[in-house]
TrEMBL record:
Origin species: Rhizorhabdus dicambivorans
GO molecular function terms attached to this record: 2',3'-cyclic-nucleotide 3'-phosphodiesterase activity; RNA 2',3'-cyclic 3'-phosphodiesterase activity
Top-rank lineage group of the source organism: Bacteria
Name under which the protein is recorded: 2'-5' RNA ligase
Coiled-coil regions listed: none
Alphabetical UniProt keywords: Hydrolase
InterPro entries recorded: Cyclic_Pdiesterase (IPR009097), RNA_CPDase (IPR004175)
Length: 181
């Protein structure tokens, strides 16, 4: 079993596998500008780790090659159009601050459901209690809460990916990419 420990604490590091949509390079500076306006936080999500999670599974050890292969095979069976994503609300609760859509995104929801069904058909289930709630985390551990509209941040997601995250070490490794559209 390969439990990792972060370098500055005794906190056990989880391995998280997640499917995600990443913002394109053109919109990242605008997202970073919003993140810069939120002020002091324990940690800010760096530009290269910004994403919208579609599905997630936490593991106490490194994922097996078989699990990764099964997730990749399931993802390869999922087709969908390129997705227009629009985030237009800044929401924070003192623990996490994120961007959210101001309106429902039925095409995104339908795509996420197809992905989740394909993964379930492979006999793999997400974290207990996982509920798809489209958002992009900007920071953790901010004082106070916030909820306000922002100028819409919009981009077209042309692909989705499978990422292996070492929670606590802020390391993301892309394991697979699939085109949309």
């Amino acid at each position: 079993m390969s439990l990792l420990r972060s370098f500055d604490s005794d906190e056990v590091v989880l391995h998280r596998l997640f499917f995600a949509l990443m913002p394109d390079a053109g919109i990242v500076p605008e997202i970073a500008a919003v993140r810069g306006e939120i002020g002091v936080a324990k940690s800010h999500v760096l530009d290269h780790r910004l994403h919208i999670t579609l599905w997630a599974l936490d593991l106490p050890m490194s994922p097996t090659p078989g699990l990764i292969a099964d997730l990749c095979a399931a993802a390869a069976r999922v087709e969908g159009p390129a997705l227009r994503l629009v985030l237009q609300e800044l929401v924070g609760n003192g623990h996490v601050t994120c961007l959210k859509p101001g309106e429902p995104m039925p095409v995104l929801k339908a795509f996420q459901q197809r992905l989740q069904l394909a993964i379930a058909d492979a006999g793999i289930w997400p974290n207990r209690g996982f509920r798809f709630d489209p958002h992009m985390t900007l920071a953790y551990g901010q004082d106070g809460g916030v909820r306000r509209p922002i100028w819409p941040l919009s981009w077209r997601a042309e692909e989705f990916m499978l990422v292996h995250s070492l929670v606590g070490l802020t390391e993301h490794v892309v394991l697979g990419r699939w085109k949309l559209g």
